[in-house]
From TrEMBL:
InterPro entries: Haem_peroxidase, Haem_peroxidase_sf, Peroxidase_pln, Peroxidases_AS, Peroxidases_heam-ligand_BS, Secretory_peroxidase
Annotated binding of heme b, by residue: H203
Residues binding Ca(2+) 1, per UniProt: D77, V80, G82, D84, S86, E98
Disulphide bond pairs: C45-C125, C78-C83, C210-C236
Record protein name field: Peroxidase
Localization of this protein: Secreted
Residues annotated for Ca(2+) 2 binding in this entry: T204, D251, T254, D259
Domain Plant heme peroxidase family profile: 35-299
Keyword Glycoprotein: yes
GO (cellular component) term, any one: extracellular region
Record Pfam families: peroxidase
Residues given in the record as substrate binding sites: P173
Highest taxon in the source lineage: Eukaryota
Length: 299
């Protein structure tokens, strides 16, 4: 099968190779219908998880925003073909990179952080740990690094050899989407409305570009707090493309802490993106938002 280069645009492709032949040899010793397991690497690479954790902690301590970027990168990977690291693949003759899809272009980031973690794992266990597993573990460790929840990550994923730009275009939610589109998108992945609202709560950290919320803050609609809109206009000019890439925190109150303020903001009509505010807009998800706003533990 050969090598599949999985790298950021700025780094050498060879430094981030996922050695598929080795993975196939390892899998040959497993049952044909292998199941993911949290102990998958305990014998093959016992230091893998600690190595990834240290790498991610270092990255987040250098740039707090990176925690949100890594969680988003994992989400955008999983929503297209499953959690298979296809979002990491560069352009190739046989496929177009998912990075060029509208939801990812000039916004998905953290590739170089995953590459560093992969390189460090390769140095101790060459050809053993998949990029897909590293990305999944990195998202968990990024959450923990900013005070968010932890969870058990089941391991043993295999890396994709192809990407799907078309599926990335159709399956990933847009910042302009209403409930009528978002709910089916999540349902098609086997996720309930509660799952959708909980996952949206990851917007308690991170930032968004002006181009994604300009229409919302200038449309003078009733679903946005006037004072909040005025504050956001300071760094987001009326006319595109001026200030398109200017950033604003998704959670104005505690932008660098993983908490439940995101849901409190929605109740106060202070959701930055249209796709956030629709979760509390008189629809079927209002009660879930209210529940999470009152209880960090429940969220």
């Amino acid at each position: 099968m050969g090598l599949v280069a999985v790298s950021s645009r700025s780094a050498p492709r060879s430094s981030f190779a996922c050695i598929m032949v080795t993975m196939m040899l390892l899998l040959a010793y497993m049952p044909c219908e292998a199941q993911l397991s949290s102990t998958f690497y305990d014998k093959m690479c016992p230091s893998a998880l600690n190595t990834i954790r240290t790498s991610i902690r270092t990255a987040v301590s250098s740039e707090r925003r990176m925690a949100a970027s890594l969680i988003r990168l994992h989400f955008h990977d999983c929503f297209v073909q499953g959690c298979d690291a296809s979002i990491l693949l560069d352009e190739a003759a046989s496929s177009t990179s998912e990075r060029n899809a509208r939801p990812n272009f000039n916004s998905a980031r953290g590739f170089e952080i995953i590459e560093v973690a992969k390189s460090q794992v390769e140095s101790i266990c060459p050809g053993v740990v998949s990029c897909a597993d590293i990305l999944a573990v990195a998202a968990r460790d990024a959450s923990v690094a900013v005070g968010g929840p932890t969870w058990t990550v089941k391991l043993g994923r295999r890396d994709s050899t192809s990407a799907s730009l078309s599926q990335a275009e159709t399956d990933l939610p847009s910042f302009r989407d209403g409930l009528d589109r978002i709910i089916p998108l999540f349902r098609n992945k086997g996720l309930s409305e509660r799952d959708m609202v909980a996952l949206s709560g990851s917007h308690t950290i991170g930032q968004a570009q002006c181009v994604t919320f300009r229409d919302r803050i200038y449309n003078n609609a009733s679903d946005i707090d006037a004072g909040f809109a005025s504050t956001r206009k300071r760094r987001c000019p009326t006319n595109a493309p001026d200030g398109d890439a200017n950033l604003a925190p998704l959670d104005l109150v505690t932008p660098n802490s993983f908490d439940n303020n995101y849901f409190k903001n929605l109740i106060q009509r202070k959701g930055l993106l249209e796709s956030d505010q629709v979760l509390f807009s008189g629809g079927s998800t209002d009660s879930i938002v209210s529940e999470y706003s009152k209880s960090p533990a429940t969220f």
